[in-house]
Amino acid sequence: SAVISQKPSRDICQRGTSLTIQCQVDSQVTMMFWYRQQPGQSLTLIATANQGSEATYESGFVIDKFPISRPNLTFSTLTVSNMSPEDSSIYLCSAEVSYNEQFFGPGTRLTVL
Amino acid sequence: AQSVTQLGSHVSVSEGALVLLRCNYSSSVPPYLFWYVQYPNQGLQLLLKYTTGATLVKGINGFEAEFKKSETSFHLTKPSAHMSDAAEYFCAVSDPPGNTGKLIFGQGTTLQVKP
Known about the structure:
The complex is a heterodimer of chains A (113) and B (115).
Chain A: E1 4-7, E2 10-13, E3 19-25, E4 31-37, E5 43-50, E6 56-57, E7 68-72, E8 75-80, E9 89-98, E10 101-104, E11 108-112
Parallel strand pairs in A: 2-11
Antiparallel strand pairs in A: 1-3, 3-8, 4-5, 4-9, 5-6, 7-8, 9-10, 9-11
Chain B: E1 3-7, E2 10-14, E3 19-26, E4 32-38, E5 44-50, E6 56-58, E7 64-68, E8 73-78, E9 87-94, E10 103-105, E11 109-114
Parallel strand pairs in B: 2-11
Antiparallel strand pairs in B: 1-3, 3-8, 4-5, 4-9, 6-7, 7-8, 9-10, 9-11
């Protein structure tokens, strides 16, 4: 198993600003993922973040809007840029600890005014 | 492309009653299947998973699920509901071995447990 923490746990931001979310894993993992969960919805994968390579984005998500860093095997960040109210969501990171078994962080609850 | 359909966005049972949450998948290759639970204001917790082998999978908190290839189903059951089971449940399918490891989630089912 793995313990995953996220910072901040929640934030309220103004339109047009950016927020960087941090994700820390208590063990080294190869693959980390970032998901968005809009209010009352399921999880949608934003991107896959592998250490030492560029993040791989899913259809509908672009690097300019959601830049991701993966500086080492235990840490990743997701930035939500130039925010609008439509970006209000829960953002979750996960880590693949064993093949196809992902552990999730508690999420970052973002409200954009 | 893989997909997951959860039948019933909201299920309500009485405490002590059987819990049945339905999940059907679509996959062109043998799938890996998962059930996750999300308690209010928390992240997702893995309940159980099916990869290969025995089709009846037992998970935490008394839950189990059966992989039925002929029905493309992976329904989640628990013989006797407890108040603490009230949560959001997500079924998910992943790429087969050697691929991306991405999870595709269903829309989720909210389980309400009535006293």
